[in-house]
Design a protein that fits this description.
The complex is a heterotrimer of chains A (about 500), B (about 300) and C (about 290).
Chain A (H helix, E strand, L loop, with lengths): L1 H16 L17 E6 L14 H7 L7 E3 L5 E3 L2 E8 L2 E6 L13 H12 L8 H4 L2 E8 L2 E6 L6 H5 L7 H7 L1 H6 L7 E7 L3 E6 L12 E6 L3 H10 L4 E2 L4 H6 L6 E16 L9 H10 L2 H8 L4 E3 L22 H11 L5 E6 L5 H13 L3 E6 L2 H8 L9 E6 L7 H8 L11 H10 L5 H18 L2 E14 L2 E2 L14 E2 L2
Parallel strand pairs in A: 1-10, 1-11, 14-15, 14-16
Antiparallel strand pairs in A: 2-3, 4-5, 5-7, 6-7, 8-9, 9-10, 11-17, 12-16, 12-17, 13-17, 18-19
Chain B lengths: L1 H28 L4 H4 L6 H11 L5 H13 L13 H36 L4 H15 L2 H15 L12 H30 L2 H8 L4 H39 L4 H10 L3 H28 L2 H7 L1
Helix pairs in contact in B: 1-12, 5-6, 5-8, 5-10, 5-12, 6-8, 7-8, 7-10, 8-10, 10-11, 10-12, 11-12
Chain C lengths: L1 H9 L6 H18 L1 H4 L18 E2 L5 E2 L10 H37 L1 H16 L2 H12 L3 H28 L2 H8 L4 H37 L11 H8 L8 H28 L7
Helix pairs in contact in C: 2-4, 2-11, 4-5, 4-7, 4-9, 4-11, 5-7, 6-7, 7-9, 9-10, 9-11, 10-11
The chains are: A alpha+beta (about 500), B mainly alpha (about 300), C mainly alpha (about 290).
């Protein structure tokens, strides 16, 4: 242990003494770019794709692994490791597995690895936090030299959106190394392999020469951990970073005139909404909830606080999700109507508690508080740390506060991943109970026919419009910034594949 | 002497053990990380199942007993977020905090002591009042304010030094200055008092009478004798530096254990927090032990012999 | 103590100009804190989403001038800074009172009763001194949540050991004095003796510690609010205003600089005044 600590200390001293690597951006004409540097706000929690699943972790490990299927630029689900598939019946799917794919250690990717990966993520022994997204899968077997058969519990229309997130790991390597060592030295079949991981500082990747899709664009990629957004921008300006993730709207707006940089943004499937407690407190009265919907000025929020990096929505879902129904109308900004509704309900001056945590934009919280106070409500902001916030928000209705902000994404681009957990009675997040609504969303998740599902969702959103257990505020944008030489199109599911990045004027 | 040290070591051990117990209990009562680990749409059954898997549904007493049993085998547990041993995570970050504390100590000592000595030697003169104001400024500046100002002036306006991160020795400068500023004033005051005390002693007057200049007396004898109390203070300042490091690491995004501590508390990564608390309280306790031993050595009888 | 008061009344003319200056600064800040609602030109929580991040001297269409500029929600920074003075002074005053009371009491009890009471209390002091205060504050806020009262309690309950050590040492010295022994023989109870006879005699050194701690408490509160663990927005506190302004330090430096300057002036004045008072109260701990 002492030797390890000493070694780490020496490494750190060596790091400190070494001159910082200067990025020479674009110089030298036709010379290919050797190293691509990305600044991330946090370090990856794990590099094992079957464990932690937060944006920064999968930004890195999605470049180390291939998935069973993936989404193309238009958002359609297309083959990756699975070349074709067919439904044998409503709960059984057979996949053809691509040949000629090798892992970083040279071993070939086989159907057995695919089946192993699927079984591993649903294995309770792994204690994967992602288990709940794949628990409809009952079994996965290699049913031929290049075929895998997968069975689900019931007909599951959201299966393929979830499979987009399932990475293939090598059975032999995982069994040989064990879960813990595999997490620190992962082996995948993706375009890049892990060179080094200095936790909390940076992760370095090197190109995988035998990658099946072709030669990766850069010989090496480095992901640096830079929590401070102003520093990420500074790194971009000085050329220390080629691309940065997660810019705020103010920083992006300030960058608009810069000739060396570009802002890349895309509307995502993440919905910004206001949760309103329908089971407890003054908001249990539906008139109060409707008044709140009328009191919030969505367009000013988007224009002033989001600098236009947001699209207004009328329902608690974004157009990037399947199930979005534009016909359902929202509530217009009408403070007079809000006041009238409050008067009718006898709720003028009612005391509401607005729960929040550091995970939510404080300015949005305070702005909404002001808007509600302007129509006569008394809103108190209750600031908690995130674990306590989650505990209360997902606990009893009388502890969940009257209001809170939400930024929800299921990474599945399907309504089932959004309004089912948020509003179906009995769910942890749901402080709302309506049997008619439950019936619609239950039915929608059990049939595979798209038109039928859309019908159910339209009726579900009409019920939500009447009852207002939540107010859809805006479709969130993902904001990246990069040097001018970078050509890359961000996608609504916030995936980042270095393989798709091009460099050059 | 040896018995005294052994007794203090035992007391230190009890103190550290007490600290870890208090922290353990406080953290357990603040909730568990299960809700933070699962994806947003997880159902109640999944959350409960994961909580059971990770062992957080057991009563606090049972968890404490299991933790003590593991400690006896020197097993400090795995981070529940990163799934690797907590000790490895902390060990990887300690060097950064040590570098920062070292840099800050260097600045605090290297600036504070000469300033304090100068203040003592030039006592009563205008220069002393100027230096006194300088020392007071250092003491009154909150570390996050000096950090932000340093970033603004040297990083943004002048562009001389990097604004944050760990890109080489130059990025250590600003955080060290921010962290060392308050300790600098403590060293200056202590050095001043110590040197003033020494200057009043007989041997100094004897040396001046023999024709030695003030400077020579200072360099040859005073500094040597004043060093002991100053070094004692240094041992205690290390504790303050570790505490101040939490804020400086946040402002400069320096990946040390201060930043790790805040992150781990916010993500309820209990076992990592326990390891950090163990390390920090060990340092505190050992440093105050060092200071106590130094005081014991300062016994006047021994000093008279040495002068 | 009486001697000092007499001396003070007599010797106002002998107070150096520098001390008078900082006393004035302190009074201004204290007055601003006390009279904040009357002195502040605008409502500190009034947002103006379309007038965010405006520079100092900005005047809006209605003719209102924002002398310190506006913050990231368009609120008047000057008013927020004035109201923020309340947080700094109130929290420091209350937390010093808490730790002074708790700490001195425990120290006196430990020195008076000796035996296992002494061992228990002083070992507890050792344990408390081994925990870095910031970590303890972060942990406590994690459990109990942030808030004004909890902040005062957290700060007060992490700093009491410093008073205990001083109270303990001083009480030991005083306890052997003849008039204490006389009171004991006269049948007075421990509480009465401690409060009426011991306390007045150890008050000097304790107040010396308190004056040093006052400046530290101001810095602590600002630091914790800066980390998001102290006074919660939208209630203004210099630390949280600076924390929110940090990401705009390039484009809107005034959000960090103005509260920072006020914080510095306050702590500087407190330290200067505290040093001067310490020189008068307890010449042994002189710094000049």
């Amino acid at each position: 242990m002492l030797k390890r600590a000493l070694g780490i200390a020496l490494l750190a001293v060596g790091l400190a003494a070494a001159p910082s690597s200067a990025q020479v951006s674009g110089q030298g004409g036709g010379q290919a770019k050797q190293s691509f540097v990305v600044d991330l706000p946090n370090d990856a929690a794990t590099l094992d794709p079957h464990l932690q699943w937060d944006t920064d972790s999968y930004t890195i490990y999605r470049n180390l692994f291939d998935n069973l299927v993936t989404r193309d630029g238009a958002g359609k689900i297309v083959p990756q490791i699975a070349t074709a598939w067919r439904y044998l019946d409503d709960t059984t799917i057979e996949f053809d597995i691509r040949s000629g794919v090798t892992f970083h250690d040279g071993s070939p990717l086989t159907a057995e690895d695919v089946a192993f990966s699927i079984r591993r993520i649903v294995d309770p022994a792994l204690k994967s936090p992602q288990l709940s997204q794949f628990d409809q899968i009952v079994s996965a077997e290699a049913s031929g030299p290049a075929k895998v058969t997968l069975k689900t519990r019931t007909p599951y229309p959201a299966l393929f959106p979830q499979l987009v997130k399932l990475s293939i790991v090598p059975k032999a390597a995982v069994e040989r190394l064990g879960d813990q060592a595999f997490n620190l030295a992962p082996v995948g079949s993706g375009p890049y392999k892990l060179l080094s991981w200095q936790k909390g500082v940076q992760t370095a990747l090197a190109a995988h020469e035998g990658y099946w899709r072709g030669k990766p664009p850069f010989p090496s990629v480095t992901f640096r951990v830079v929590p401070d957004v102003a520093t990420r921008v500074a790194d971009l300006r000085t050329g220390r970073a080629d691309m940065v993730r997660q810019l705020g709207p103010d920083e992006a707006a300030a960058m608009k005139g810069d000739g060396q940089l570009q802002v890349l943004s895309v509307p995502t499937e993440r919905i910004g909404y206001l949760f309103v407690n329908a089971l407890a407190g003054p908001t249990a009265d539906v008139r109060v909830r409707r008044a709140i919907a009328h009191a919030v000025d969505r367009s000013t929020l988007i224009e002033a606080l989001l600098q236009g990096f947001g699209n207004p929505v009328n329902i608690v879902l974004t157009p990037a999700n399947f199930g979005y129904v534009p016909e359902v109308k929202g509530y217009e900004f009408d403070p007079a109507k809000a006041r009238a509704l409050l008067k009718e309900a006898g709720a003028e001056g009612a005391a509401l508690s607005f729960l929040t945590s550091p995970a939510y934009d404080r300015r949005l919280v305070e702005a909404v508080q002001q808007m509600l106070q302007d129509v006569g409500l008394k809103v108190e902001i209750v600031a908690l740390d995130h674990p306590t916030f989650l505990r209360r928000r997902q606990g009893r209705p009388d502890e969940a506060g009257s209001l809170s902000l939400g930024r929800w994404s299921c990474a599945c681009q399907d309504a089932d991943g959004v309004i089912f957990p948020l509003f179906r009675s009995g769910g942890l997040w749901s402080k709302y109970s309506n049997p008619a609504y439950d019936a619609e969303v239950d039915a929608a998740r059990r049939i595979l026919d798209e038109k039928g599902r859309l019908g159910h969702y339209r009726r579900a959103f009409e019920i939500l419009r009447e009852d207002v257990p939540g107010v859809g505020l805006y479709q969130d944008f993902a904001i990246y910034a990069a040097r001018k030489e970078v050509s890359w199109t961000p996608t609504p599911n916030e995936a980042f594949f270095v393989f798709d990045v091009k460099w050059g004027r | 002497m040896a018995r005294f040290a052994a007794w203090r070591l035992l007391q230190a051990g009890i103190a550290v053990f007490g600290v870890m117990t208090i922290v353990f209990v406080i953290m357990r009562f603040s909730g568990d990380p299960t809700l933070l680990l699962v994806p947003e749409g997880a159902s109640r059954e999944h959350v409960d199942a994961l909580r059971r898997e990770l062992g957080f549904d057991r009563p606090v007493i049972v968890q404490y007993g299991a933790y003590l049993a593991d400690l006896l085998r020197l097993d400090f547990g795995n981070s529940v977020v990163q799934r690797v041993p907590a000790v490895d995570i902390v060990a990887g970050r300690i060097p950064y905090t040590l570098m920062l504390a070292g840099g800050a100590l260097l600045i605090a000592f290297g600036v504070g002591v000469p300033v304090g000595v100068a203040m003592a030697v030039w006592r009563g003169r205008a220069a002393e009042r100027l230096l006194a104001a300088f020392v007071l400024v250092g003491q009154s500046m909150p570390t996050f304010l000096s950090g932000i100002l340093l970033i603004l002036v040297f990083g943004v306006l002048l562009g001389w030094l990097p604004t944050s991160g760990t890109g080489g020795l130059s990025s250590l400068v600003l955080p060290s200055v921010a962290l060392g500023a308050v300790s600098m004033s403590t060293f200056a005051r202590m050095a001043r008092i110590a040197v003033v005390d020494e200057l009043g002693k007989d041997y100094v007057r004897a040396g001046r009478a023999r024709g030695l200049s003030a400077g020579a007396v200072v360099m040859r004898h005073v500094l040597r004798n004043a060093a002991i109390p100053v070094v004692t203070i240094a041992a205690l300042e290390v504790g303050n530096l570790l505490a101040g490091a939490v804020i400086v690491e946040t402002v400069f995004a320096w990946p040390g254990i201060g930043q790790l501590a805040i992150q781990s508390i916010q993500s309820r990564d209990f076992l990592v927090v326990q390891v950090i608390v163990l390390f920090v309280s060990l340092v505190y306790v050992l440093m105050s032990l060092l200071a106590d031993l130094a005081y014991a050595v300062l016994d006047p009888r021994i000093r008279l012999h040495g002068a | 103590m009486r001697a000092l008061a007499l001396q003070g009344v007599r010797g106002v003319r002998t107070i150096p100009a520098g001390i008078l200056l900082v006393a004035v600064i302190l009074s201004v800040i204290a007055a601003a804190a006390l009279l904040a609602p009357l002195v502040a030109p605008a409502d500190p929580s009034r947002q103006a989403l379309l007038a965010r991040l405006r520079p100092p001297g900005f005047a809006n269409a209605a003719g209102q001038t924002f002398w310190f500029g506006t913050d990231d929600l368009g609120r008047d920074l000057l008013s927020r800074v004035i109201h923020g003075a309340r947080a700094s002074l109130l929290v420091a005053l209350l937390s010093v009172s808490v730790s002074l009371t708790v700490g001195s009491m425990l120290g006196m009890l430990a020195a008076w009763f000796r035996g296992w009471v002494e061992v228990a209390i002083m070992r507890f002091v050792d344990i408390m001194l081994s925990i870095p205060a910031i970590l303890l504050a972060v942990l406590t806020v994690a459990v109990l949540g942030p808030g004004f009262v909890k902040l005062v309690l957290v700060l007060g309950l992490t700093r009491w050991p410093r008073y205990t050590r001083v109270a303990y040492a001083q009480t030991l010295q005083v306890a052997s004095l003849p008039f204490i022994k006389a009171a004991e023989i006269g049948g007075a109870g421990a509480g009465r003796i401690l409060l009426r006879h011991v306390l007045p005699n150890i008050a000097g050194p304790l107040l010396v510690v308190a004056t040093a701690e006052f400046g530290l408490m101001i810095l602590f509160e600002a630091g914790l609010s800066f980390l998001g663990l102290g006074i919660q927005p939208p209630q203004p506190s210099w630390g949280s205003i600076m924390s929110a302004g940090r990401q705009y330090v390039e484009r809107a430096w005034w959000i960090t600089v103005f509260p920072g300057a006020c914080l510095f002036l306050l702590v500087f004045s407190v330290n200067v005044l505290g040093d001067w008072l310490r020189d008068r109260l307890d010449p042994r701990s002189r710094s000049r």
